[in-house]
C-alpha cells in the first residue's frame, strides 16, 4: 500500500535529518489518488521533507532514476525502482522497493520461496500449494490422494481476492490447465488445498491485511505496522443463531449461501473475500485492534494473541 509506506517513511526518515528529505515521485506508476496522502504528509512536515520532482508522464517522461543526485527518496514502481539501484545509489538514498522482494510478493513466487526455504514444513505456514504449470503432475497426484470431497483453490496472478476459484477435484484439474483467452499465458498460477473450518465473525469470512516496512536487508530491518485491517466477505448461512449470538464460529463443509462474489454448489466459493466486490456499507472493515478485542471478548482473554503467536 504506497500511501501507508509513504507515511511511515516520512515519519522514520524525515524527522531524523537536519536538511529536508527530498522526494522524487513517479506518480504515473500508481493509480489515481494513491500518492495524495504522501504529498499531504510532505506538505505538513514543517520543512523536514520536500518534493523536488513529480513525473506524471509515460515511457518518455523524465523519471527519478535519470538523475539520482537530485533526490534522497525515490517513490516509484518496481521497474524504475530497480533501474535506480543500477545507477549506484549513494549512502543514505532511499528507494521504495527492496531488490529481491518479488520472491515473496507474488502468489507463485511466495509458494516457490516457502518450499525452497522449508521443504515439506512449508505447509505449517501456507496451505498445501502447487505452482502452475510446473507442478501440475504433483498437483494431480495430491488431488487424487485427497479424494472427491476435497475442494481446491486456484488463483490467478492478481490480488485483493480477484481471480480466485474454489472448485471440486475434477473441475480443478481441468482449470489448472487453462490458458488465458487467445492462447495466452497460464490462467491460474497457484493451486492450493482449501482450508476447512475457517473463522467466521458475525457469519462473515475475513482476511487480515498487514503491512511491513523494510529499511534495509544487511542487516534486515523490518517493521510491522500495527494498524492492519480486517476485511469481511459475504454473510454465510441463515439467520438462525446457529453460530452463536452474533454469528461467530467456524465455517463447516456444509455452508451454503448466495453472494455477489458467486458460489458453487458447496458454498465454498462464497468464502472468498473479494475486496473489489465487498459491500462496505453492510460490513465495514475493522482495525486489527477491533478484531483482536472482539475475538478476546467472544473466546476469552488472549484468544487473538494466542492465535497470532501460532
From TrEMBL:
PROSITE patterns: TTL. GO terms for cellular component: ciliary basal body. GO terms for molecular function: ATP binding; tubulin binding; tubulin-glutamic acid ligase activity. Residues 236-263 are annotated as: Disordered. Residues 1-18 form the signal peptide. InterPro entries: TTL/TTLL_fam. Keywords: ATP-binding, Ligase, Nucleotide-binding, Signal. This is Tubulin--tyrosine ligase-like protein 5. GO terms for biological process: microtubule cytoskeleton organization. It catalyses: L-glutamyl-[protein] + L-glutamate + ATP = gamma-L-glutamyl-L-glutamyl-[protein] + ADP + phosphate + H(+).
